[in-house]
Design a protein that fits this description.
The structure is a single chain. Helix content is about 30%, strand content about 25%. The protein is built from seven helices and nine strands, in the order ββββαβββααβαβααα. A six-stranded antiparallel beta sheet has the order 4-3-2-1-5-6, covered by helices on one side. A three-stranded antiparallel beta sheet has the order 8-7-9, with helices on one face.
Length: about 250
């Protein structure tokens, strides 16, 4: 069986689709695609294009490299022969499992002009809050490219569809920013965040402790930032609240 490079695209609803590519002995390029499963039924073969170029095109559309796999003539996917097998007994075809080291995001915007303005204002305000919080902690602001991509898209008057990923090295702030956008629920704006396993990440921060753990943090460590984004309700400081109360005991 030939060795193929497998790529995956995450939809906003948590589902996904796969695309694979290989270079044949005669120099032609074959691609397979379909919903994420143990088999990719659709196939196409063409010439006049390099595998590197077509992979770059797919990655620009939001597809993320999963790994090398073997695919037989019927489209059945098997683990690469170099991958260790825990059990030597026969196993059904399966897609490879990889370590969770990133999140996938997708924003589909079909909102009107007024909503786009409101969304743009909110995104810039939230980013300013996160930058101020990072600076107060002495941390560098994440160099995640999604900040500018989403803000630029929100400044136009046309619908847009953006997707990408958040690597662990980008830190937790991009995830919080997108969670805030999801929590805001602007009409006509669909926000999807998913783990490598395809689980949808909600905007309920206290329910996503495992996601926070990926970035070596927890709710209490990021509480000030989360409160400024509206992901957590501010705690009431009773001592401060009572400080201005007149003592009427007599």
């Amino acid at each position: 069986m030939a060795v193929w490079n497998l790529f995956r695209y995450r939809n906003s609803d948590g589902s996904s689709k796969d695309w694979a590519v290989t270079t044949n002995a005669d120099g032609s390029i074959s691609t397979r695609w379909g919903k994420t499963a143990s088999r990719l039924p659709s196939i196409n073969t063409r010439t006049g294009i390099r595998q590197y170029d077509i992979e770059r095109q797919k990655q620009a559309k939001g597809y993320v490299f999963v790994g090398e796999v073997e695919i037989d003539a019927d489209g059945n996917i098997r683990l690469s022969r170099s991958a260790p097998m825990a059990d030597p007994s026969p196993m059904p075809p399966q897609t490879p499992s990889i370590a969770v080291d990133k999140l996938y995001w997708h924003v589909d915007c079909r909102a009107g002009h007024v909503t786009l303005l409101d969304m743009g204002i909110a995104l810039r305000r939230w980013l300013g809050d996160l930058e101020a919080w990072s600076q107060a902690r002495g941390d560098a602001v994440s160099d995640w490219s999604g900040w500018q991509r989403l803000i630029d898209a929100g400044q136009g008057d046309e619908a847009f569809d953006l997707s990408g990923q958040i690597d662990l090295e980008h830190g937790v702030l991009p995830c919080l920013w997108l969670m805030a956008l999801k929590h805001a629920a602007f009409p006509g704006v669909s926000v999807g965040i998913a783990t490598e396993s395809g689980r949808d990440v909600s905007a309920e921060l206290k329910a996503e402790t495992d996601v926070l753990a990926l970035f070596d943090t927890d709710v209490e460590a990021i509480r000030p930032a989360a409160e400024s984004l509206g992901l957590l309700k501010p705690r009431l400081d009773l001592a401060l609240a009572m400080a201005d109360q007149t003592d009427h005991w007599f």
